[in-house]
């Protein structure tokens, strides 16, 4: 059977599940929030990675109902957490085209009761590639509601800098590839320092992704990164485990 046929039914069948990866504030060393990462428990194939089904969903338009489910579920779950914790949701470009995203966002916040300030939307620069007014309008609408907007995977595309001018992001997420190579490359340290300095000047915060060692974490603290996320700090985990983590440290 085709994976796409199964994916069409996955939402309705309750086969999708959100995992949550903690993000730590590097000043207080406490959890500031979690990134929601979708998982698919396929009845026969087992756990299917989003890297395998998100592109399929994007190509077929299924990303819209799927993304709507992710947003609603993330808001619903985070609404029960302590009020200082945020939840970050990944968006595909296609979710922001057309005029449907604003109402979906407003409904997700209203239904869950989650304060807008506790929600972050993560978009890659690919979102701005189309240069469509729809996309910019949707992001501006989100920001005007109080929702935070982050640039994900910063540094991996062709012209990340020009996208920083096109939209006022609240946060830059420094791509894992830069963070990882800080361990052996002084040039990479210089690049990450420069990104952090740039973000500070633009009034944006920074999250380092892919932090897998204490050594990297210490470096990031020293150079003034705002937040960190990665296997050294915590892997993506089911909601019950995230809940345990929240209440074990609080
Ligand atoms: O969690 P993992 O590292 O396996 O995720 C693989 C990729 O899938 C990452 O690029 C991540 O951003 C993306 N991804 C995970 N969850 C979602 C989601 O809910 N929506 C979208 N659009 N992408 C997601
Ligand atoms: O594209 P995005 O940054 O949203 O994707 C996040 C992806 O990175 C998820 O699939 C998540 O599981 C993965 N991830 C998170 N932390 C680490 C890490 O420390 N090392 C590696 N290799 N992957 C990570
Ligand atoms: Mn992300
Ligand atoms: Na990323």
Automatic annotation (TrEMBL):
Residues of the EAL domain: 1-250
Stated name of the protein: Diguanylate cyclase (GGDEF)-like protein
Lineage: Bacteria, Pseudomonadati, Pseudomonadota, Alphaproteobacteria, Hyphomicrobiales
Part of the intact protein present: 706 to 955 of 963
């Amino acid at each position: 059977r085709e994976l796409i046929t199964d994916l069409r039914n996955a939402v309705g069948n309750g086969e999708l599940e959100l995992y949550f990866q903690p993000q730590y504030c590097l000043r207080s060393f406490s959890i500031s929030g979690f990134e929601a990462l979708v998982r698919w428990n396929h009845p026969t194939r087992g756990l299917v990675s989003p890297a395998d089904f998100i592109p399929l969903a994007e190509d077929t338009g299924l990303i819209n109902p799927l993304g709507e489910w992710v947003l609603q579920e993330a808001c619903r779950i985070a609404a029960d957490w302590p009020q200082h914790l945020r939840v970050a949701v990944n968006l595909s470009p296609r979710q922001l085209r057309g005029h449907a995203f604003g109402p979906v966002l407003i409904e997700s916040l209203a239904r869950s009761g989650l304060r807008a300030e506790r929600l972050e939307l993560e978009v890659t620069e690919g979102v701005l590639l189309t240069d469509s007014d729809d996309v910019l309008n949707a992001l501006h609408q989100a920001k005007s509601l109080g929702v935070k907007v982050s640039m994900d995977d910063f540094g991996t595309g062709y012209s990340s800098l020009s996208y920083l001018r096109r939209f006022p992001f609240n946060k830059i997420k420094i791509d894992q590839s830069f963070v990882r190579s800080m361990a052996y490359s002084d040039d990479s340290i210089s690049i990450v320092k420069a990104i952090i300095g740039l973000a500070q000047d633009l009034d944006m915060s920074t999250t380092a992704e892919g932090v897998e060692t204490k050594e990297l974490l210490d470096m990031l603290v020293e150079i003034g990164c705002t937040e960190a996320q990665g296997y050294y700090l915590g892997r993506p985990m089911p909601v019950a485990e995230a809940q345990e983590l929240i209440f074990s440290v609080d």
